[in-house]
Amino acid sequence: MAARIDELDRKILRELQRDASQSLDDIAKTVGSSKTPVWNRIRKMRDSGIVGRQTAILDPEKLGFEACFFVLIRTSEHEAEWQAKFLKALRSRPEVLEAHRLAGDIDYILKVRVRNARAYDEFYQALISEVRIYNVTALLSMEEIKSTTDLPV
Q: What UniProt keywords apply to this chain's record, in alphabetical order (predicted)?
């Protein structure tokens, strides 16, 4: 169920998404309000879970993580024990930036960021040694066209 927010909340959220490190004064000025009401709204949205943790967005290529793979996984096993083992393996791997369970022919898709193809192979070999997987297809991203964490609030 979607939380109830008004237009001022939306403006505040857009500013936080744009740059959460900006000062409360700057946010209040941009959204056309004063500092105290903006702070109260931010606190309320944090308390309700609308606003989660704040992080820094790093440039993976500048840090040497030049290869981004999308990994399509099909499994023939759907038991709770297998799924728990699989999820534990995914959560323990820092290379996995995203993991989604899908409807359709593919069971899971992973977004994996590594230094190069050799590093992907090491990730792949480690994963299949921990959990049995029916079929894996890895797709190398040739170019990132759009990547954002901003929601259209």
A: DNA-binding, Transcription, Transcription regulation
